[in-house]
Amino acid sequence: MNIKCHSKNDPNKIAIIGAGGVGATTAYALMIEGIASEIILIDINKDRAEGEAMDLNHGSSFVKPVEVHAGDYSDCAEANIIIITAGANQQPDETRLDLVKKNTEIFKQIIPKITKYNQDAILLVVTNPVDILTYVTLKLSGFPKERVIGSGTVLDSSRFRSLISRNCGIAASNVHGYIIGEHGDSEVPVWSLTNIAGTKIDDYCPICDGDCSSNNRDQIAHKVKDAAYEIIERKGSTFYAVALAVARIVRAIIRDENAILTVSSLMEGNYGIDDISLSLPTIVNSSGIAKVLDLPLNKEEKDQFVNSAITLKETAKTLDL
């Protein structure tokens, strides 16, 4: 586990790049959490950022003290966490990887503007395709790997637990299971380690009369993978659940929780994979990435994880970094 090295930055100052649906909703979630003393919204559309800041500030009497305002990149100075949500939106007929070249070009403009004013923050990437863009951010920023984090499969893992909880008729908070790999079409559900109250899912299903057949498991995995596509088709974008996922990651950092979350970070030999960012259960604290955990996956899951990495590495090779 990493030795903690706290920066000189304000631990409760958070900058959000991008004041669209995800960025603004993330600011709202952080207000509700009461974990930030200052939130800065930065957007190419300054009127949008100012309007969102005004709207959020009008609810300040209902939450713990927090200052929300619109700003520019110079306001990233002394922020402890900089959350990046800016980028082109995923369209109904696009995969997350289809977005990669458009958003890589956008990040080539954003990242140098951030690092000009702040060299000590933790960078938290949310923009899709999040794993590739986490890797892009690491390369463009030159930051230590511990301080470049992607939201990864934190949301996917929550969707996974939610669907299992409905299948078994218990609260989602009592389901322990992970989605690993890419936040996208090659993501991997880790069924072999999924448990409820310490009981393996295979043993718990007969108790709760749940359907744990391979067919139903495949349906659950597909629903997790396709959730964003279905939401985008119906309402144009996703932002509530991802904002809650981002707020969870931020809380783990600010409160130095040593929480285990499936964030995306640089692989360094995990299951034979290196030089790409992917999601594995990871200890997250005030240093950012404290330790990436290698789980005792079964062979099928390990192979799927490696294939997920190969897919992303092939995409990364097409980028001019």
From TrEMBL:
Pfam families for the chain: Ldh_1_C, Ldh_1_N
Main location: cytoplasm
Localization of this protein: Cytoplasm
UniProt-annotated binding residues for beta-D-fructose 1,6-bisphosphate: 161, 176
A single GO molecular function term of this UniProt record: L-lactate dehydrogenase (NAD+) activity
EC number(s) from the headed UniProt entry: 1.1.1.27
Residues where Phosphotyrosine is found: 229
NAD found in the keyword field: yes
Lactate/malate dehydrogenase N-terminal domain segment(s): 13-150
Enzyme class: oxidoreductase
A GO-annotated cellular component: cytoplasm
GO terms for biological process, alphabetical: glycolytic process; lactate metabolic process
Regulation: Allosterically activated by fructose 1,6-bisphosphate (FBP).
Family, per entry: Belongs to the LDH/MDH superfamily. LDH family.
PANTHER family: L-2-HYDROXYCARBOXYLATE DEHYDROGENASE (NAD(P)(+)) (PTHR43128), L-LACTATE DEHYDROGENASE (PTHR43128:SF16)
Subunit structure: Homotetramer.
Protein name: L-lactate dehydrogenase
Organism of provenance: Orenia metallireducens
Lineage: Bacteria, Bacillati, Bacillota, Clostridia, Halanaerobiales
